Amino acid sequence: MPWESATPAADGRSLDIVWWSGVEPCTVLDRVEVTETARQVTVTLYEGQDRRSPDAVCIAIAILKTTKVHLTASLDGRKVVDGAK
């Protein structure tokens, strides 16, 4: 799932990731994968349907969602990359 922006916290130890998505329970954040190297941090979002609501019917609108991603090391000038692009 492509995201719109990644804003680092003041201490550089986390990122607020913002993306456009559908409404719950039809579209929920399944997991976030973070790969950190010395030069960049790659963040990949994965979405799916809430398994607790397999027969849900949802309207087709886009909403802005946010999640916080914690890093193992401070961002410290590393480039943040969208793993879905």
**What is the mean predicted local confidence, pLDDT?**
96
Number of strands: 6
Strand order of the largest sheet: 1-2-5
Q: In which range does the helix fraction lie? A: under 10%
Instruction: Give the strand content.
Output: over 45%
Q: Sketch the major β-sheet.
A: 3 strands, antiparallel
What global shape is seen? elongated
Query: Low-confidence parts, pLDDT < 50 over ≥5 residues?
Result: none
Order of helices and strands: EEEEEE
Number of domains: 1
The rounded distance between the terminal residues' Cα atoms is 9 Å
Indicate the structural class: mainly beta
Give the count of helical stretches.
Answer: 0
What order do the helices and strands come in, and which of them pair?
Blueprint: E1 5-8, E2 14-21, E3 28-36, E4 40-48, E5 63-70, E6 79-82
Parallel strand pairs: 4-6
Antiparallel strand pairs: 1-2, 2-5, 3-4
Features:
85 residues, three-stranded antiparallel sheet, elongated, three-stranded mixed sheet, mainly beta
Describe the structure.
With 85 residues, this protein is mainly beta. It has one domain (5-82). It is 0% helix and 49% strand. It is built from no helices and six strands. The protein has a three-stranded antiparallel sheet with strand order 1-2-5, with no helix packed on it. It is elongated. The protein starts with a strand and ends with a strand. 11% of the residues are buried. The mean pLDDT is 96.
